[in-house]
Structure formats: structure tokens, C-alpha cells
Amino acid sequence: MRNHAHMLKRSYINEVMAVAPSLSGPLLRMHFHDCFIRGCDGSVLLDSPTNQSEKFAPPNLSLRGFNIIDRVKLALENACPGVVSCADIVALVARDVTVATKGPFWEVETGRRDGNVSLISEPINPATGLPPFFASINLLKQSFALRGLNTKDLVVLSGGHTIGMSHCSSFDSRLYNFTGKGDTDPSMDPNYIARLKLKCKQGDQTTLAELDPGSFKTFDDSYYRLVTKRRGLLQSDAALLNDPETRAYLVQSTSHGSTFFKDFGVSMVNMGRIGVLTGSQGEVRTICSKRN
Ligand code: HEM
């Protein structure tokens, strides 16, 4: 990417973070949701006249920040038209919000092209869709392996939950009805359950809770400390305690020898390589929500 375009995008993201810091979580998550469905091809950004594209699938309804992607795109099209794909913008913005929240920097590989297909059914396909919040460790490992990502990538990228928020509905079964008998999740710290119940009444669909309470606006390694103390918010976070390799990483990341920041950049590059379109495949969209 030409340098002035790079500077433009960078100053724009700093501006966004100043006025809407709460978009850092959704914008990091957007790259994950893009890459895991049809590869990192910007398919999550496409609109559909009948609301049948990926962004209308339940796990994507809580994504936000599409207008930020559109605005970065507009600025880049003005500076150098037809060069930077929407898929690349999502990847670059994910890196920039990580840096803006005091997380690590990594060099983003670019050159992705934008796909033309986006289907509401794909994110929720039980075998090949996004891993659900209730995924077991085996399902999580499978879901990552299907995309060429290993167990280390899984535990490292889950560390993305060091920023941002979750709707109560993504974890309230752990508080109220874990096995359908009005019980709680035995793998969660009971004191934490009590605190979360004050925030989330049963059936609450709208309230948000911090994934990493105390520092949900800061990209740091406290996520691993919480998960190790059985205070991971999502079942998929707690599941990382159920495998020797992921558990060892959790423990190591709470020590001075933590390599999380360096690892996160490496795993984000790995994730950014999933199913990339190159050459004459796809296109470089002019407007990220529309095919050319
Ligand atoms: C390992 C499998 C994963 C599962 C099951 C999962 C699931 C979830 C769920 C259920 C939420 C809350 C959504 C809501 O209720 O609003 C969430 C939020 C979030 N996820 Fe993940 N996630 C996973 C991996 C990742 C990865 C790989 C990243 C990025 C590297 C990521 C970044 C985020 C961020 C930043 C948020 C906060 C979003 C916000 O503030 O709106 N997640 N995730």
C-alpha cells in the first residue's frame, strides 16, 4: 500500500478510537468472522436486498463498525483507486485497533481480493460455520484445524477476548440453566456467577458484559489470568482449561515469561491467510457492502 494511503488510514483509526473506543472490539472480531467463512474475502461486509448475506446470520448481528470500514475505504479509493481490497481493510483495521488499545503491532500481509458470494446459512452451519459460544475444546480445535490453524493459534487468538463486550445471552445459560435443570456451570467461579447474575437477569437479550472486566478497553494479558481463575466469560473461554496444551499456554501467559503479544501477531497473520483470493479471483470492490 502506498505510504500516504497508509498514513491516512492510520490517522483515521486514531480518530475513530478517540470518539468511539467501543468499536475496537467489534472491529477486531470482524476480521475473525470474515476469515472463518469463505476465507478472508470481505464476504461479511456484503449487503443483500433480501437480508440473505452473512452479516444477517445470528452470530454477525452483534458485529458493528461496518461504517468505519466504509469510511476507510472511501478515503483509500480517493488516494489510490482500486488498490486496497475490503478484505485487506478489515485485516488492517483489526491490527490498528489492537495497536490503538495498547496491544502488539504486526505487519499485515496484503493483496487479498474480495469475494462475490455471501450466504446467511454459512456462519451457522454446524460443521463449517463459526464456532459457537458453547463450543467444547474438541469442537474449537476442529473448527480451527479445518482452516489450517493449530491449537496454539486457538489459545492465542482467543486472547482477542482481552478487549470488548458480550451480550448476556452469549453466556447466561452458564448462570441459570446449564444442563436444562436450572443449574449453573460448575466450571465457573461461583463468586463470579453471583456477580454476573446481578448484571444479567435471566432472558436478558440486550445488556452487555465486559469479556475482560477491569481492562476491557486495553489489550493486555489479563484475559489469561481470568480464564485460569475460572472467570472466563464464555464457555469457549473456559473450555481452554480442558486441554493440556491450551491449559499450559494459559498458565504460561500469566507469568513474566508470557509470549502472548508476539504470538498474537503471528497467529493473526496465520488467520489472515485463510482462503485468500488472489490473481484474477474475485475483485477489488469499490464499495465494501456492494459487488462492483
Ligand atoms: C475461539 C472461538 C471463539 C468464539 C466461540 C467466540 C465467541 C464470541 C462471542 C459469543 C462473543 C460475544 C458476542 C456478543 O454476545 O455480543 C465474542 C466477542 C468478541 N470476540 Fe470472540 N470468539 C472466538 C474467537 C475470537 C477470535 C479469534 C477473535 C479475534 C482474534 C475474537 C474477538 C472477539 C472480540 C474482540 C469480541 C468483543 C466484541 C465486541 O466488543 O462487540 N473472538 N466472541
UniProtKB/TrEMBL annotation:
Record note on cofactor: Binds 1 heme b (iron(II)-protoporphyrin IX) group per subunit. Binds 2 calcium ions per subunit.
Keyword Protease applies: no
UniProt keywords, alphabetically: Calcium, Disulfide bond, Glycoprotein, Heme, Hydrogen peroxide, Iron, Metal-binding, Oxidoreductase, Peroxidase, Secreted
Cofactor: heme b; Ca(2+)
Active site, per annotation: H33
Binding site for Ca(2+) 1: D34, G39, D41, S43, E54
The protein's Enzyme Commission number: 1.11.1.7
Source taxon at top rank: Eukaryota
Catalytic activity: 2 a phenolic donor + H2O2 = 2 a phenolic radical donor + 2 H2O
Subcellular location: Secreted
Binding residue positions for Ca(2+) 2: T162, D212, D220
GO cellular component: extracellular region; plant-type cell wall
Domain Plant heme peroxidase family profile: 5-292
Binding site for substrate: P131
Positions annotated to bind heme b: H161
GO terms, molecular function: heme binding; lactoperoxidase activity; metal ion binding; peroxidase activity
Cysteine-cysteine disulfides: C35-C40, C86-C288, C168-C200
Primary role: Removal of H(2)O(2), oxidation of toxic reductants, biosynthesis and degradation of lignin, suberization, auxin catabolism, response to environmental stresses such as wounding, pathogen attack and oxidative stress. These functions might be dependent on each isozyme/isoform in each plant tissue.
Family: Belongs to the peroxidase family. Classical plant (class III) peroxidase subfamily. Belongs to the peroxidase family. Ascorbate peroxidase subfamily.
Listed name of the protein: Peroxidase
Species: Helianthus annuus (Common sunflower)
